[in-house]
Design goal:
This protein is α/β, with parallel strands linked by helices. The chain contains 18 helices and 39 strands. It folds into 2 domains: 357 residues, Metallo-dependent phosphatases (Purple Acid Phosphatase, chain A, domain 2), CATH 3.60.21; 225 residues, 5'-Nucleotidase, C-terminal domain (5'-nucleotidase,  domain 2), CATH 3.90.780.10. 48% of the residues are buried.
């Protein structure tokens, strides 16, 4: 595999060697007789010590700038422009550093979409994300799964060309317009060549500033091996772009193959860049997050950089995500191997600090493991943020301004206001278009790629992601008229969500809806006092007892109908005898839903992957039939473009659920934005009235919510 020397390496020749070189340069020894020269003896070998800091970023997802392009304002909580500052600070702190990137770098924000799809960059231009990273001079990186999202031709181009794989012109691209650092991945193979798609590893030759036993500062060579591994799931998530062109290998198997090979080639240190995380349980071939198994089963690894899960390790807080055996948050090790996962989106960097011992006789380095320190350094400290790095800001400025102009561009029109101000009460104006987009996206894929499920109905659920939690303006609210790219982002808040499709039966749909109905407090019809409808600390009840709006999934299909009986206790999926049943009269196409009938439901990756224990019961998992790489937000945007004109009758009025009618002795109250009664009335919610125009700061309010009353007997 390739060896990458350090720029301007230090070369030392003995006097004899120098003379020999001079003789050779002069045409040999026939120009006269050279007297023998006794070489000057080299200094006696000494032991030495050195400090090395391995710095890492992961899952940058093209968050080059600290900016929200959909709201068109700064967002200091994210951005490589701030992680760059942390990197420069670390370099000033440690005499020797190595900087690596752990993948999912070129996709995730509209900046990446702009250069890949909206205004594709020519092969003569370096990707702006790599241009920004070049200001920091990275040493190596690995391919994440999202590097494949835009297809292999684009990937080959931005890597500088040369991918020998079906459908790619290897001449497209130029090395000097590539990343500027070697990108290695060991477990992706080109079917065309039978060889790794990119180099599986790299051995970097560097010079370390060290201190000899006599106290003298010296420069000594070191060889650092870096093995890259990505998640094999790329063949599922980007099947349409990769099938028949590449194959993937198990990450653990790849580590077992290449780590010893790198060691055998003389590497003093070996680091694994794993674009994957870790999880409990036995190893499964092709698993997505094999970090713990690699650390436990592959000897010879000095450091493990992880990502993909957007998590943090080590986490020395009170609620660490990784608590299983072998994951030591205090020491920052996984089965004894120093390991780090530095969040995502430029929120943090990973730092593993090594104390190295140089054996002057063997001329090899060894790690003093007792002195290894592992950290995650964040761009945010309390309410303060590190400053932006001017070089990164400047590198991205041109693309930044082009992207700002793009997001204000129109993608369609709407004859109605799309709002979540009253989504908790049944207004679907901001939800139905999302469900329609997701349903259409999944249905097309099923027809083309999953014939075994072609007979199953495809449904979709979504939730009011902005439901007033932050403040009285924290609602989706898109005015009638021109719909822009930014408006599509308002309709779908989370740009990191991707479309997932799960197979469920009628009984599971009912459980899904029972869980969503936790959004509501239990209402006592006989109670004369006021009662808050919503179980949310900002818009209804006491702080701490809250069910977020983003978990209130609803259907908006004419084929589905059901009622929510808020007089019943919340359903306990793990102990049904302890709770009531709130979902009544659940029907499909006018008939009681058959508990055994199967459906495909379009949702997002978080719901599909993380919510099953809450919806189906502890230990249960959804049957995921398609994990799409496509962001829900982009799916909505493209659907609006395709529809061109949105009309309330077809895109914003199909309500699948209602409250079960009940007469209450007292008032049932609900908080929402001020001066919004007209929104409810336009949505056909005539049973709502204004109780107070200003909540006056009651129950955690800010003084700017309005309080509305709802007549549950009239819904």
């Amino acid at each position: 595999m390739k060896r990458y020397p350090a720029p301007a390496p230090v070369v030392r020749l003995t006097l004899a060697a120098a003379c020999a070189a001079l003789v050779s340069a002069c045409g040999g020894g026939d120009g006269g007789t050279w007297l023998p020269i006794v070489p000057t003896p080299e200094p006696a070998a000494q032991n030495a010590t050195a400090q090395l800091a391995l710095l890492s970023t992961t899952d940058l997802h093209y968050y080059a700038r600290s900016y929200n392009y959909y709201s068109d304002r700064e967002d200091k909580t994210v951005g490589f422009e701030r992680t760059a500052t942390l990197i420069r600070q670390a370099r000033s702190e440690f005499p020797n550093t190595l900087l690596v990137d752990n993948g999912d770098t070129v996709q995730g924000t509209v900046l990446g979409s702009y250069e890949a799809q909206i205004a594709p960059i020519p092969a003569t231009q370096q990707l702006t994300m790599y241009k920004a990273m070049a200001t920091l001079k990275y040493d190596a990186g690995v391919l994440g799964n999202h590097e494949f999202n835009f297809g292999l031709p684009f990937l080959s181009q931005i890597l500088g060309g040369g991918l020998d794989v079906e459908g790619v012109d290897p001449k497209l691209g130029a090395k000097d317009k590539g990343p500027g650092f070697p990108v290695v991945t060991a477990n992706v193979t080109s079917l065309k060549s039978g060889k790794p798609l990119v180099d599986p590893y790299v051995i970097l030759e560097r010079q370390l500033t060290a201190t000899q036993a006599d106290g003298k500062t010296v420069t000594l060579p070191v060889k650092i091996g870096i093995v890259g591994i990505t998640t094999p799931g790329i063949l599922n998530w980007d099947k349409d772009k990769l099938e028949g062109k590449i194959r993937t290998q198990d990450g653990l198997a790849a580590a077992k193959q290449y780590v010893p090979e790198v060691r055998a080639k003389g590497a003093d240190l070996v680091f694994v860049l794993l674009h994957g995380g870790m999880q409990e349980g036995a190893h499964q071939p092709g698993m997505e997050n094999p970090g713990a198994h690699i650390a436990q089963q592959v000897p010879g690894i000095d450091g493990l950089i992880m990502g993909h899960q957007h998590g943090v390790f080590p986490d020395r807080g009170t609620n660490a995500a990784y608590k299983f055996a072998g994951a030591d948050n205090a020491r920052g090790t996984v089965h004894g191997v120093p390991a780090v996962m530095p969040s995502s989106w430029g929120k943090a960097i990973g730092l593993i600090h090594y104390s190295l011992q140089w054996d002057g006789t063997a001329k090899k380095w060894a790690v003093d493991s007792a002195k290894t320190d592992v950290q995650v350094r964040n761009i945010q400290n309390g309410s303060a943020y590190v400053a932006s790095d001017p070089a990164v800001v400047a590198a991205v400025e041109d693309l930044h301004q082009k992207t700002r102009s793009y997001v204000t561009s129109p993608i369609g029109t709407s004859d109605f206001r799309m709002s979540t101000l009253f989504a908790d009460l049944g207004d679907v104006t901001a939800l139905q278009i999302v469900n329609q987009a997701q349903q259409d996206h999944v249905a097309r894929y099923v027809r083309s790629n999953l014939p075994q499920y072609a007979s199953l109905p495809v449904l979709s659920v979504t939730a009011p992601f902005k439901a007033g939690y932050g403040n009285s303006s924290d609602y989706t609210d898109v005015a009638a008229g021109t719909v822009t790219v930014a408006n599509a982002a308002d309709l779908y808040l989370y740009d990191n969500n991707t479309v997932h499709a799960v197979k469920v039966n009628g009984a599971q749909i009912k459980l899904w809806l029972e869980n969503a109905a936790h959004r509501f407090n239990q209402i006592d019809p006989a109670k004369a006092e006021d009662q808050w409808l919503i179980n949310d600390s900002k818009t209804g009840v006491q702080p701490g007892a809250s069910f977020p709006g983003y978990n209130f999934d609803v259907f908006t299909s004419p084929d589905i109908s059901y009622e929510i009986d808020v007089t019943q206790p919340k359903y306990n999926v793990n102990n049904p005898a302890q709770g009531g049943e709130r979902i009544k009269n659940l029907r499909y196409q006018g008939q009681p839903m058959n508990p055994a009938q199967e459906f495909i439901v379009a949702t997002n990756n978080y719901r599909a992957n993380s919510s099953a224990p809450y919806i189906l019961g502890t230990g249960k998992a959804f049957d995921i039939v398609w994990a799409s790489p496509d962001a829900n937000r982009e799916v909505v945007l493209n659907y609006v473009k395709e529809q061109k004109r949105l009309a309330r009758a077809t895109h914003g009025s199909t309500r699948s659920w209602r409250f079960a009618p009940v007469k209450t002795a007292g008032k049932v109250l609900f908080k929402s934005g001020p001066n919004a009664l007209g929104v409810a009335q336009a949505a056909g919610l005539g049973h709502i009235r204004v109780e107070r125009a200003d909540d006056g700061g009651v129950n955690g309010g800010t003084g700017s919510y309005a309080i509305y009353g709802i007549d549950l007997s009239q819904d």
